[in-house]
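Predict structure. Chain length: 191.
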Amino acid sequence: MDRNTLAGHLGGWHAWVIEDPDGRNAAARAEIRRAASVRDAMMCQAFGDLLTRVRRSGVNRPDAWQVETLARCTLVVAGVSRLTFGKPSFGAAMATERDGRPVVSPIRAKTLLCSRNAGEAADRIRGLTGLMAARLGVGFEICPGDIAAAMSDWDRRKTTWAMDYHSGSCFTHESLAPAGANESFPELRAA
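Prediction complete.
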């Protein structure tokens, strides 16, 4: 199962369980949001339904890595009220300015980007999505394709997110320089 297929299933699952237009999935939504780990998520009815839909789509028997990746993705997107394909990366979303500062501080962004594996990253992303949703309110959306890519290949995606965070950040080189650095590094002086 490639990342695009994973993102498609994730988007459909999110619309069905999390956005819940009919109001029938409140219990499933609450259960997946309470899941504390990937293993907990795998035991949720909503995840079982997603896995059944994946199998019906032609992925006969996803391997253990694919199932775990799918579970990680569900944990991350379960706390987000809206998914939108084609949105900027999560790294760029972290750098979204609110009151002249990025919604996610450089220290928190660094903590996420220093995650050793996708499991650690998923836990940290879950925490950041709550923070970002609280700070950005209705305007907070993430792209399921970006999350699927991160959970599938964390080492590559974290580099992309780091570049996106710093290119979208309101911090300049000068504002990041320690006191007195401008005297030692003239290229950091304001023009």
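Summary: The first helix runs from residue 3 to 19.
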